[in-house]
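Q: Hi! Curious about what Phosphate-specific transport system accessory protein PhoU looks like structurally. Here's the sequence.
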Amino acid sequence: MVINAEQQRASLNQTGLEMLNLCTSQLEKATEALKNHDSDLAEEVMNGETRVNALDLKIERDCEKFLALYNPVAIDLRFIMAIRKINLDLERMGDIAYEISNYVVDEDKKIPASLFKALSFDKMYETLTSMLEDITVAYEENDVKISRKVFKKGKALNKINAKAFDILEAEIKKDNEIIKQALLLFVVVKKLERVGGLIKNIAEEIIFYIDAEVLKHKKKK
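A: Let's find out. The predicted structure is below.
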């Protein structure tokens, strides 16, 4: 059966969506495992990394095949360039989910609920989840307007994270027996901040693919 360029592009797009949904699920499970100190769920995430890596390699191979067979130009070329970069960002997101889960498996003591509350961790994660939902819709519907929504939410996420060190320092002064758990949570918060950055990268690639607008390195307002 001969597959034309349009069919191959649709197949690639679907695999990219599968990768996006998988990495979103991995991150959700890793965060839940962290909050509940659920080592079984953390192990599930770590085992799921195999699927993430397999999809990463498949997308890369399919992009190379598309370039070789169809010599794309204009929007088709932008699509391939965007999907490769999006795939790279998603693979990094999967790595972060793996790393968070690995902390849960390696650490014996549960992080106190008081630390999560002091950091407004739930609010931070809700913002991140909202960004992931927006970017999934934007990807599925090729919607530039929804893509742009994540930038404002990313700023709100950064404001919460900017206070993390001072908050945890204050909590440690109250109880120096939580030093290890506080430092671990600080590392996780920074990793989730990085996820926010990766989501913004994906939004930029969707905008580039659809509107041929390059946002990278634009002067920040």
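A: A fun detail: The chain is about 85% helix and 0% strand.
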